[in-house]
Amino acid sequence: MYSRRARVLFLVALAVLAAAGCATWVRGRELAREYYNIANAYYDLGRFERAADYYRRALALDSGLTPAGYNLARAYLRDKRYDDARDVLLDLLGRDPDNLLLRETLAYVYYLSGDIARASAQYEQMLALSPLNANALFNLGRIAEEQDRPAAALAYYERAAAVEGGDALLLYRYGRLLLTEQPEHAVAVFERYLDSSPRDYERVVEVGDALRRERYFLPARRAYQMVPSNHPEQPRALFGKAAVLLTGIQDAQLGLQTLEQALTAGYADKDAFIALLNDRDLVAAAAVRRLLEEHQAIEVDDIDARDNGQRP
């Protein structure tokens, strides 16, 4: 597929270059558009240096071809030429200072290049132009979180969630940050996260684990049940569901069946098994331990969980 697209691109480029020698057949702006299309094809192939070359050719013929300028900045960005991307975007913003897409891309360039102060300034300018811009609020929240400013991060995430209430990544980060300070509020956010039909099942299981640790068993079970049976996270989800059944819902029969499914699927986290055995609300503790020993998940001389008295 790649080689066929590359051959087609070469033939198109050859035809355009040949046509460029005939001034009566191709005018400057038309040729600029052709160069732009070739550049886009190179971009799609991941050949960002060649894409940038053709975007520059297009702009040399038609400086008003704004999409070529923006895509040139994107090509530089993908090629990690951050200074070049920044210069192109600043030039474009000089002509269109209220363009939120340009500002957001420039903020991202600053972020990737390590200039966090300028990145934050660009996102703040986006908010000045569009106070309900969820992307700017989310990214300011991430920056604040990375700078260990949880209160500021929570404030940004809260504002963003009020605007974009179904964004899975936003709700995940917001709920996770809330968990230590406001667990009940975090549970509500995590339930909204599950309502958003997330597809990152590693995060879904992480949310289930967090809810289970906080003893919110029903939403935890819901999280575990969302993981598809053929997904790599399924063994971990099965164990989490078994733990919910054995400690929260206290359905010994179904809990043991689910635990056996997790073991058969390959789940082998000894620390998690010992934490389960140590749980004060565990039902059928002897049967759970026996099952774990039968599957060689723990050794006979491991911690005697029922006498340990610790919570997971």
Describe the secondary-structure layout:
Blueprint: H1 2-20, H2 28-44, H3 48-61, H4 66-78, H5 82-95, H6 100-112, H7 116-129, H8 134-146, H9 150-163, H10 168-178, H11 183-195, H12 201-213, H13 217-225, H14 234-249, H15 252-264, H16 270-278, H17 285-294, H18 305-308
Helix pairs in contact: 1-2, 2-3, 3-4, 4-5, 5-6, 6-7, 7-8, 8-9, 9-10, 10-11, 12-13, 12-14, 13-14, 14-15, 15-17
In words, what does this structure look like?
The chain has 312 residues and is an all-alpha fold. The chain is 73% helix and 0% strand. The protein has 18 helices and no strands. It has helices at 2-20, 28-44, 48-61, 66-78, 82-95, 100-112, 116-129, 134-146, 150-163, 168-178, 183-195, 201-213, 217-225, 234-249, 252-264, 270-278, 285-294, 305-308. Helix 14 (234-249) packs antiparallel against helix 15 (252-264). The longest helix has 19 residues, at 2-20. The chain is elongated, with a radius of gyration of 27 Å. The two termini are 51 Å apart. 38% of the residues are buried. Residues 6-25 and 305-312 have low confidence and may be disordered.
